[in-house]
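Attaching the record inline, Q. Sequence:
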Amino acid sequence: MIKAVIIDDIPQAVDLLRRDLESHCPEVEVIGDAPSVVAGSKLLRQLNPDVVFLDIELQDGTGFDILEILGDIGFKIIFTTASDEHAIRAFRFSAIDYLLKPINPEDLQEAVAKVKESQPDSKERIDLLLDTVKDRTAPRKLALHTLDKIQVADIQDIVRCESSGNYTTFFFTDNSQLLVTKTLKEFEKLLDAQGFVRVHQSHLVNINQIKEYVKTEGGYLVMKDGAHVSVSVRKKPTVIKLLDQL
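Structure, as predicted:
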């Protein structure tokens, strides 16, 4: 059984999540719940669950306060939230799971399935989450899932991303590469405001890592690491406009 704790200050929300888990995720046993930062922190230290369903807004603070109080944690976190866009962006950059309220049963089952397959959330990713939540400017780091680990990367060190089917290969300024288990489309949405542009169906590039645009041979970019990246016909006007603005 997967031992779970629910931390939410709305009793009806706790009851509803309990019922949803019983109905759709019978492998999960809820071993406790709490309505506040203080009570939640004490309960987590006592029970040591496998997963915590953690609401953002609590009676005496936020779910993020609990993570800061506990420091190192030994469980998976699934945040539950209504529509905090800044927090959701932080979850995505730190690769922390979240569920939007009202919780969809299929999303709940998918989140629980991830708990079975993965390790507790690392301190590095929790620190990244907390830093991103506190800082209202653009995030500087990104958590990247590979087949066997989660690597936290500096966004400025990413030269480009290349589609590899349902995976994405990241290329870095130190000439290293990383195969990540998400599609290029997902990173396009995530990095759109970070100075990245989709220049081709298979290529997303960091505009700060572009060395030059060659107009011949169909048009392609030369990156600072020496890589040549094709530019699609449809994207040429966008690329030229971006380069003119640099």
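The radius of gyration is 21 Å. The first strand starts at residue 2 and ends at 7.

More tomorrow.
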